[in-house]
Amino acid sequence: MDATGYHSHRITICTSCRHKGRDCRPGLELIDRLRAALKAAGGLLSNDFEISGVACMAGCDRPCTVAYHASAKATYLFGDIEPGQDIEDLVAFARQYRDLDDGWCSSTTRPGKLQRTTLARVPAALIVAEAGPVQ
User: Fold this and answer.
1) Residue 7: half-sphere exposure toward Cβ, Cα within 13 Å
2) What is the chain's pLDDT, residue by residue, as a tens digit (135 residues)?
């Protein structure tokens, strides 16, 4: 958490994704497992990330989807995440993402499965207003 008591990074997990041919929605299980794994990884890591669910991130063809985002950093969306198999890669990426100034990294430096399951990398938005009179 920063000085204001807010987490500086977020992980958002789709709670409506369903793996093909299955009725269960793995998002809620993934939230619980990832929270526990970040806590086990150490105070600094768990304090830096807020983990929450969202009803849909439009990654329905590649469930379960997970997004990493922070102010002034690139946002990442990963798909094909399995709660019982991919926790170590998600925690390793949390460490990596936290330590990147702008959030930018290549696919070859991402941990394990996340090298090949990236659905999107969205650059940080920088909004600049021109100075001068409006006409």
Assistant:
1) 19
2) 555 555 689 999 999 877 666 666 788 889 999 999 999 998 678 889 999 999 999 988 888 999 999 999 999 999 999 888 999 999 999 999 999 999 999 999 999 999 999 999 999 876 665 665 555
> Which pTM does this prediction carry?
0.85
Alpha-carbon distance 45 to 47, whole Å?
A: 5
Task: Spell out the domain ranges in the chain.
Answer: 9-122
End-to-end CA distance of the chain: 43
Q: Tell me which fold the domain 9-122 belongs to.
A: Glutaredoxin (3.40.30)
Q: Which of 58, 59, 98, 108 minimizes the C-alpha distance to 81?
A: 59
